[in-house]
Design goal:
The structure is a homodimer.
Chain A: H1 3-22, H2 53-64, H3 86-98, H4 109-125, E1 141-145, H5 148-170, H6 176-182, E2 183-188, H7 193-202, E3 205-209, H8 219-231, E4 235-242, H9 254-263, E5 267-271, E6 296-299, H10 301-304, E7 312-316, H11 319-326, H12 359-393, E8 398-400, E9 408-413, H13 417-430, E10 436-440, E11 443-449, H14 457-476
Helix pairs in contact in A: 3-12, 4-12, 5-7, 5-11, 8-9, 12-14, 13-14
Chain lengths: ~475, ~475
Amino acid sequence: MNASEFRKRGKEMVDYIADYIEEIEKRQVYPNVEPGYLRPLIPDSAPQEPETFEEILKDVEKIIMPGVTHWHHPHFFAYFPTANSFPALLADMLSGGLGCIGFSWASSPAYTEMEMVMLDWLGKMVNLPPQFLAGKDGEGGGVIQGTASEATLVALLAARTNAIKRVHTANPELTQGDILSRLVAYSSDQAHSSVEKAGLIAGVKIKQVPTDEKFAVCGSALQKTVDEDKAADLIPFFFCATLGTTASCAFDKILELGPVCNKENIWMHIDAEYAGSSFICPEFQYLLDGVEFADSFNFNPHKWLLVNFDCSTMWVKKRRDLTCAFKIDPPYLKHDHQESGLITDYRHWQIPLGRRFRSLKMWFVFRMYGVKGLQEYIRKHVKLAHEFEVLVRQDDRFEICADVILGLVCFRLKGSNKLNETLLKSINDARKIHLISCHLREKFVLRFAICARTVESVHVQFAWKHIEKLATELLRAPLQQQ
Amino acid sequence: MNASEFRKRGKEMVDYIADYIEEIEKRQVYPNVEPGYLRPLIPDSAPQEPETFEEILKDVEKIIMPGVTHWHHPHFFAYFPTANSFPALLADMLSGGLGCIGFSWASSPAYTEMEMVMLDWLGKMVNLPPQFLAGKDGEGGGVIQGTASEATLVALLAARTNAIKRVHTANPELTQGDILSRLVAYSSDQAHSSVEKAGLIAGVKIKQVPTDEKFAVCGSALQKTVDEDKAADLIPFFFCATLGTTASCAFDKILELGPVCNKENIWMHIDAEYAGSSFICPEFQYLLDGVEFADSFNFNPHKWLLVNFDCSTMWVKKRRDLTCAFKIDPPYLKHDHQESGLITDYRHWQIPLGRRFRSLKMWFVFRMYGVKGLQEYIRKHVKLAHEFEVLVRQDDRFEICADVILGLVCFRLKGSNKLNETLLKSINDARKIHLISCHLREKFVLRFAICARTVESVHVQFAWKHIEKLATELLRAPLQQQ
């Protein structure tokens, strides 16, 4: 395929994507294929001779689409939102076309420099304390990670390096192995599974601190766990606070937790993967009070800020903490400006070496929406969640299971878990809308998350009527089926 | 921006990208900006009100392009190639438009299923032993990682889990900490820096095995190191063999190394990040002889197989080895088919949770080029490298520093390292072509890598004439400047 055929096919693809998004409501939100559906539909091995674009695009409809869960369907209320906006798509096209690998400043200076500035823009939008910004000569700064999982892991590794150094300096007789086996990290019992995974990777113990009746960790709970562990000769070194848990969008009390961490020499990382985007609205910034105590902070514009996946933004107060944990400089990556102290080589801030031009998406989205446009978008989602909440509260067969603060509503039928499992199954089997569940303590709970960019009141009303109807059928059914 | 404006702007972007690639030779391959160039060119903070697409596209030329290193310029001979093809761009546009997050089978079945089949296609193309393929009921299979760094880390972590389990079973009195501090992993002294980084992350010792005069590790060198370490009460558990080292594209002797690893219970991972793509040509498949001894194998189609970054393909003989190292299943990610044993949840094969639809790029590229088209592409690059090699050999002021096997030529002026450093600096300062260096033992060496998709003999000839001319000027200069 040469450039002139790309001009033609690329434009067809633009139309295909525009059609897909404009007409997504004609598709079934949740596919009904079975595992292994795709393999029999395509050949066993790659073709020897080239095929045409027409053949492939035809196969997209025939082979791919039947197996797609349509995350941008306005009847998709599962998980949390993932971003999809036209400005981000345009930026990603350009990023693909340029196709550089920005692992060092010299490998494509614009990549690194734009990322530094975009992270400052976004940091200001969410009102981060200035220590987290790079500016012209700050000690902090931001970086785009692929996912919040990676941000948590990177923070944990930096904290681990710091802790080993500190303990070793105070006790030179201890080996790295001795210290490692005594380190202990913490998260909420509601924290994302990625924290546990980060602990597994880093080879350190992770303990879950119990949450209160709002599913939040408070300062005294952390202090109690820390005290017990210190008495047992362990070394607490890392706490991952969650703002907006995956299950119920609960907020750990970082205003209480921060001082505990600071006093105990514990690195505080804040994971606000979903909720963080809302902090661009002044009325939600109170949720971030206490970030001044943190060492690192992360959220995912690729969830709720219209910047397509992947774009997980992470800030640290001291960038040296990250680079010291990772810095390895082989001769083939050295360049002129490296030792000048003026530049940022982002490969020292992350697990992988290669990097795409992801800050371009932020630049396009922030400029084409404007901060006001993005704020409106967040507010619309929150409003729709409250609209759904009101509907649930009006039906006394149902209960709301957690405070509705942003775009997530946790609810269930009053009654057994079995009943609610059956309700969820009937919802997903009907395939008109798509939801998932969570456990809140012993309760099986349905999660209704406002997701699609194009979701409106009419879709929320439709979803509620559908859920109500299925609930009525279920409650009417003979008891043994419940 | 709504869908109808996207139709217009998307098509403009397609033309912009086609223009960029068609006219890339008019641009300067290596930028001459200084660190910090970009910040003064854009505002301090994001705009409150939306801006237009025209304004942004104008800024791309004004602000971005002056700071781009043009990796797809036919005068770019630095690092290794990174892929950029029109079919891959089209697939990535579609992947962006669909915008799903394929962390589990249910989150978008087509994502997982296409990836399984594409990894089988590519595995067959490079003639991997069938144990590495998933097929309908195999125990092995492939996965797309973001980068080779992540593949190495994932392999190392799986090996670590296996080793700890094995040693603990034999010696139940040992704690995990005891075992961890005795584990030792190996790579070539020519291996990529990512192996060292993986060791840092995993908290295990990494030792470099010395290479022979061809910069390759042979079986006896590994055996010697293993024997010494065992005598010192260490536990060897992982060896990362490199096929095509970053410095000189050298090949570790896996036919000798494999049996050592198998006998010693050492996980053998093969990292063929650049060279792996060449194995689609029968005449280069001998380089992979010995892969049958390996536990895991990885290469980067995003380097040399026209599949845009990121697409690092990794295969394992036993997929359980990966999933056991990572499997964490929170309730909010459970789905109906999970326990059936029929499905693959790729989140257990990797560090991050979220995943894009990257196998779509493989499907588009393999079908639109055909295997034959891809083979031709590889052969053209290898031929151009030999063309450059011949030019260097004809000039007796220069020497070739390593066997030219694929698309990389390592060469230098006979003489001091200082002289060659000066030559490289004059080449990059002139900004007509772009190269980087490496160290081979004590020697400072220039690397000439065939990179761009559109590079032809005329560009190689141009580059050589330019280098010759700069060398002549340099050798004529007063001695003190050398």
